[in-house]
Structures are given as C-alpha cells and as structure tokens.
C-alpha cells in the first residue's frame, strides 16, 4: 500500500477530518488533501508531522522488512521519500527494537529536504565518508570523515552536505523514530 493511502486510511481510522489533521500537523488543509491524492511530493518533515499527529512511528508508512538478526547489505530496507535527496537505509532488522540503526546518504552539496525536526530521544552519528554539517538548535557542527556526534533529539536538528562528494553516515537513535 502506498504511503498516501496509509495516511488516508489511518486518518479515517482515527475519525479525523482533513481539517483536524491539518490543525494537528500545522500543515494546510490543501497540503493534506494534495498529499492524500498523491499530487505533491511528501517531505520528511511533513511525513514526520503526520506520523506524530496520528500516533505512529514514521516507519509505519513503509513495508516492514523480515524480522531477523542479520541484515544483509542487499536486503536493507531503504526509506526514500519522493523528491528527497536523503536516503535512509535501515540497518536494524526491524522497527520493533529499542534502538534504531540507520545508514544515511546525502547527495553532494545538498541539504536535508526538511526543516529542523525534533522528537523524543537521543541520537549518535558517525561520518563514514565525506563531510556533514549538523544544525542542532542554534549551533552548527561541521563533521569530517571519522568524526562523531551525540545529541538530544528533542532539540530541533537537520543535516547539510557541504562538500562535492556524497556524505555517508551511520546513526543510532533511541527510541526508534522511523
């Protein structure tokens, strides 16, 4: 089932109108309507707001991977939103754990396509390739290959890739947010 169909179905299960979901997400009623009809691209920020308002993790909108202990490179579930320049690869076997482990790829010179996001929990990231700027609240941290960062996810944050090669990083989040 497509993401937009899951949004509509979940909204209806909760007995919410488009207007009520609009209020909960602070997205316009037009935006919610266009998202549900698959007329516009869905940003990470918008999906995050919708998931939060509907009381589900963002991973709810993606097909579940088979549960297991080992996740083979070619079997990783990718989370890619339409018109997004950010690719998340789930390194954890499924979404039902106490920690979430992600590989994050960001194209050269790009910024994550969402505004700053905040959520419950903590994050720790390690840059494997390239560079990454982490905007955390009103602070900016420029990370090089091999650098790591740890922060409270309750402070609004986002990523930017300032260099000419793909930025690849590994992230652990608790509790799982996707």
Structural summary, described in words:
- 21% of the residues lie in helices and 28% in strands.
- It has 178 residues and is α+β, with helices and mostly antiparallel strands.
- The chain folds into 2 domains: 3-61, lambda repressor-like DNA-binding domains (434 Repressor (Amino-terminal Domain), Orthogonal Bundle); 73-174, Jelly Rolls (Sandwich).
- β1 and β2 (86-90) form a beta hairpin.
- α2 (18-25) packs across α3 (29-36).
- The radius of gyration is 16 Å and the shape is globular.
List keywords for this structure.
178 residues; Jelly Rolls; 2 domains; six-stranded antiparallel beta sheet; 28% strand
Fold topology:
Layout: H1 3-13, H2 18-25, H3 29-36, H4 44-54, E1 77-79, E2 86-90, E3 100-106, E4 122-129, E5 132-136, E6 139-143, E7 148-152, E8 157-160, E9 167-174
Antiparallel strand pairs: 1-2, 2-3, 3-9, 4-7, 4-9, 5-6, 5-8
Helix pairs in contact: 2-3
Tell me briefly what this model is.
The chain is of the alpha+beta class.
Strand order of the largest sheet: 1-2-3-9-4-7
Amount of helix? 10-25%
N-to-C span? 17 Å
Low-confidence region ranges:
none
Apparent shape: globular
Could you tell me the radius of gyration in angstroms?
16 Å
How many structural domains can be distinguished in the coordinates? Answer: 2
β-strand percent reads 25-35%
């Amino acid at each position: 089932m497509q993401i937009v169909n899951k949004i509509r179905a979940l909204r209806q299960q909760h007995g919410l109108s488009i207007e009520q979901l609009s209020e909960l997400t602070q997205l316009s009623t037009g935006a919610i309507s266009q998202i549900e009809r698959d007329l516009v691209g869905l940003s990470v920020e918008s999906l995050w707001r919708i998931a939060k308002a509907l009381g589900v993790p963002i991973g709810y909108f993606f097909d579940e991977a088979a549960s297991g202990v080992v996740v083979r490179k070619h079997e990783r579930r990718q989370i890619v939103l339409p018109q997004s320049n950010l690719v998340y690869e789930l390194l954890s076997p499924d979404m039902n754990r106490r920690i979430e482990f992600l590989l994050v790829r960001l194209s050269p010179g790009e910024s994550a396509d969402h505004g700053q996001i905040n959520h419950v929990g903590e994050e720790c990231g390690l840059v494997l390739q390239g560079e990454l700027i982490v905007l955390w609240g009103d602070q900016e941290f420029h990370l090089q290959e091999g650098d790591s960062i740890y922060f409270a996810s309750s402070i609004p944050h986002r990523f930017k890739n300032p260099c000419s090669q793909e930025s690849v990083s590994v992230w652990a989040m608790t509790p799982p947010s996707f």
